[in-house]
Design a protein that fits this description.
heterotrimer; A mainly alpha; B mainly alpha; C alpha/beta; B: mainly alpha; MetI-like fold; 2 domains; 11 helices; C: alpha/beta; Rossmann fold; 6-stranded mixed sheet; 4-stranded antiparallel sheet; 10 strands; globular
Chain lengths: ~280, ~280, ~250
């Protein structure tokens, strides 16, 4: 049994190793930095510039986080500081439900509801003609997918703030909101940042829903109403051609490796903060 | 005092508005799935496999994907269970509380939990290439098993940790070995919780598309061998949405409805089990 | 309300769910004296104390009936401004809980939330109250360091300064020295004796000797009921009730 435990803890390293092995062919030809910073993606000519995809991921994730963080934090504060127990008990399963909806279903919903919304109402409002398959669409759908994790982690963090310092603040005549603002949030800040970090890492890696609504055009975006081609979508869309074009498989697996490393970074950072905040308890 | 009250009022409003928005979005998504999916449902959808020209709008159903998903998620759950249970028992019955390996393993599971499914798909792909395995049911099973392993392990671990130490101590005091204690006390006590963990993992595995994209392939027939490609519901939805034919897109809605309904049933079952657990546990 | 009483409790009943924590309590707390509430653990001392500043509102499932009049105003009246009531009362808890900020900010927190912004005024307030709590000399060079770095005894005095900074009229203490070493306890007791000239003080304690040292007035609670109350000399030397005598003699604890 101990062996199995050891094996399980090594899976991450195995993943890093395997992906690295498969990425070596392309890394042998082009240094990593040039691949990450170059814009031209023309696999048939042997050009593999990842920049448009990295930018695409950043834009979509940025929009998603900008929408998700305020809404999630406000909801988390409400649930842990204001809501009566009955409300808390009812909303927890509902938020879990949101977390359980599969990615493709979010994608369909995005295509049916968000894309037309952007095409018909939002874009014309800004004087832009758009198909609706945009960063904004991807960001909105992604934000909804990210709500549950930020809310869940943030409420756990708020729960870990001792009741006594809230009492101390209230005993001085502070209102509930003043207590939240000056005392609870200050104490919970590292944990809240960790919650956001976990949300970011979830957003980075989400594939199918974003693929279906973001447009998949390999150009560096310049506005939220532009289409984008995030990194996971790139990997998913081109698996068919992977083995037929030289170096294509290596390039895509390199993209996976980069994605893995970024996600790991955010994850590790957030988890370590959470461990310290909650004294090792989950 | 007025200023404070105004500020409190504003933020209370924002908080309620946020919570309401999030819950409304949930309702909206569910409604869309039902409104679009239900009309497109037909008996043929769930009893037939795609006939020729299915993706062009001709006849057939998604039985291939339904069965394929059940086989794949079922196999993956079994595989993940056979790894997760021993490891979690090790963490709770064998390892010392301060064991570095235990802490590291738990931490690894937390980290693995956060890795995107497309990376699991890519990794699964490399593993398959290494063993010379082509896109197949087995490939999908292995990849999804890896994907759901942390989900299952975490849930199981959390449940087992709740088993009071007094119980296990009582067992050792009677002279039981660690294996006996694990199986007869820990597992039995935590059984509903373990079942919940298994259901949760199954639900996660059946709905995921990115991990099976490279590894399970797709097929129009019901899987008959572990080494042939297999269809899955999420991918069926994806491909049906991708066609330019509205009739086929309609089918995508129906497929989405079936998948969502399946996952909903599993979630509710998991939740009921968890509630039952809370009542029957020895305290 | 009898003359000289600042807090008048009339038929106060407090329920936590199905448990009745306080049964029909009626008592007057005299102004500018130290009143000590004594009794065995779980008898409702803390509940009574926390009803005075309505902190018991925070407990889920709490119900209460009756009145508590502070300076003639019923604090349970639904129209009343809870934050104003709490401002009148300073609470010192059993274990010190400094807010997650610097020493200065801890003391300044109260005035700030009630609208004081002027930096110089805040600095003056902070110094004045830290002196009152007997902590100024020890922290005057460390005002902007995190409060968590102080020793437990210092933290408790910091919490006292923090409570005084909102300029309350009444100070409530919930076993304020039980987490402290004897030397710090002594200091705090000394500070209370000084403060009673200007503040009404209500303390809860299970240390009878402390009660003897500090109390001007005593209230004895047992299992949520008011058994006896009166001037300290009378209750300690000549208790009317048998139960009081037994408690004071250590027969029941």
């Amino acid at each position: 049994m101990r062996l199995l435990a050891v094996l399980s803890s090594l899976i991450v390293f195995l993943m890093l190793l395997a992906l690295y092995q498969r990425s070596r062919p392309i890394l042998a030809l082009h240094p990593l930095m040039s691949l990450l910073c170059s814009r031209a993606w023309q696999p048939l000519r042997g050009l593999f510039g990842f920049l448009p995809f990295i930018m695409g991921t950043l834009w979509v994730t940025g929009v998603a986080i900008a929408i998700a963080v305020p809404l999630s934090l406000l909801t988390a504060i409400y649930l842990s500081e204001y809501a009566p127990r009955a409300v808390r008990e009812w909303t927890a399963p509902l938020i879990d439900l949101l977390a359980g909806i599969p990615s493709v279903v979010y994608g369909i919903w995005g295509v049916l509801v968000i894309v037309p919304l952007i095409k018909n109402q939002i874009a014309p409002f800004f004087g832009v003609i758009s198909t609706g398959y945009t960063i904004l669409a991807g960001g909105i759908v992604l934000a909804i997918m990210v709500f549950p994790i930020i809310i869940h982690v943030a409420t756990e963090v708020f729960k870990s703030v001792p009741a006594e310092i809230r009492e101390a603040s209230l005993a001085l005549g502070a209102t509930r909101w003043q207590t939240v603002k000056h005392v609870v949030l200050r104490k919970a800040l590292p944990g809240v940042i960790a919650a956001i970090g976990l949300g970011v890492s979830r957003a980075f890696g989400e594939t199918m829903a974003v693929l279906m609504v973001a447009g998949n055009v390999a150009k560096i975006p310049s506005s939220v109403l532009d289409p984008a081609y995030p990194l996971p979508a790139l990997i998913a869309n081109n698996y068919g051609e992977m083995l037929s074009i030289p170096l294509y498989d290596s390039a895509l697996l390199l993209a996976s490796l980069v994605l893995l490393m970024v996600v790991l970074l955010f994850n590790l950072f957030s988890r370590i903060i959470l461990m310290r905040v909650q004294g090792g308890m989950r | 005092m007025d200023r404070r009250k105004v500020e409190e009022g504003i933020f209370k409003f924002l908080m309620l508005a946020s919570a309401f928005t999030i819950l409304s979005l949930l309702a909206l998504i569910m409604t869309t799935v039902i409104v679009k999916g239900l009309p497109a449902m037909s008996f043929a959808m769930i009893t037939q496999t795609p006939k020729g020209g299915y993706y062009l709008g001709k006849e057939g159903g998604i039985l291939n994907a339904i069965i394929g998903s059940l086989y794949l998620a079922g196999g993956a759950t079994l595989l993940a269970f056979s790894l997760a249970l021993p490891v979690v028992l090790y963490l709770n019955a064998y390892a010392r509380r301060s064991s570095l390996l235990a802490a590291f393993t738990r931490f690894s599971f937390d980290v693995l939990w956060g890795i995107p499914s497309i990376v699991y798909g890519a990794f699964g792909f490399t593993v398959m290439l290494f063993f010379g395995l082509g896109a197949s049911l087995l490939g999908g099973i292995i990849t999804v098993a890896l994907l759901i392993l942390p989900v299952m392990a975490r849930a199981m671990d959390e449940v087992m940790r709740l088993v009071p130490a007094d119980l296990t101590e009582a067992s050792y005091a009677l002279g039981a070995t660690r294996l006996e204690t694990s199986l007869k006390v820990l597992v039995r006590q935590a059984l509903p919780g373990i079942a919940t963990a298994v259901l949760l993992a199954f639900g996660r595995g059946i709905g995921d598309a990115a991990s099976v994209l490279f590894t399970a392939g797709f097929s129009d027939s019901i899987p008959s061998s572990l080494f042939r490609p297999a269809a899955t519901l999420p991918l069926a939805i994806f491909f049906q949405m991708g066609t330019p034919f509205p009739e086929v897109q309609e089918r995508a809605y129906a497929s989405a409805f079936i998948l969502t309904a399946l996952i909903l049933v599993i979630s509710v079952a998991a939740r009921l089990l968890a509630a039952k657990y809370a009542r029957h546990v020895v305290r | 309300m009898t003359g000289g009483a600042q807090i008048c409790v009339r038929n106060l009943n407090v329920h936590y769910g199905h448990d009745r924590a306080l049964k029909d309590i009626s008592v007057d707390i005299p102004a500018r004296k130290i009143t000590v509430i004594i009794g065995p653990s779980g008898c409702g001392k803390t509940t009574l104390l926390k009803s005075f500043n309505r902190l018991i509102d925070l407990v889920e499932g709490v119900r209460f009936s009756g009145e508590v009049l502070v300076d003639g105003e019923n604090i349970f009246d639904p129209e009343v401004e809870i934050t104003a009531i709490r401002k009148k009362m300073g609470l010192l808890s059993q274990k010190p809980y400094p807010l997650p900020m610097s020493v200065f900010d801890n003391v300044a927190y109260g005035p700030r939330i009630h609208g004081v912004r002027d930096r110089r005024r805040l600095a003056k307030l902070v110094e004045h109250h830290l002196r009152q709590a007997g902590l100024w000399e020890e922290v005057k060079d460390r005002l902007h360091l995190p409060a968590s770095r102080l020793s437990v005894g210092q933290q408790q005095r910091l919490c006292l300064a923090r409570g005084l900074a909102v300029e309350p009229e009444i100070i409530l203490g919930d076993e304020p020295t039980s987490a402290l070493d004897p030397k710090s306890s002594q200091r705090i007791e000394g500070i209370f004796l000084e403060l009673k000239q200007n503040y009404t003080i209500v303390l809860v304690t299970h240390i009878l000797r402390q009660a003897r040292r500090l109390a001007d007035y005593v209230i004895f609670l047992y299992m949520g009921e008011l058994i006896e109350h009166g001037p300290a000399k009378q209750v300690f030397n000549n208790p009317r009730e048998a139960m009081t005598r037994e408690y004071i003699q250590g027969v029941i604890s």
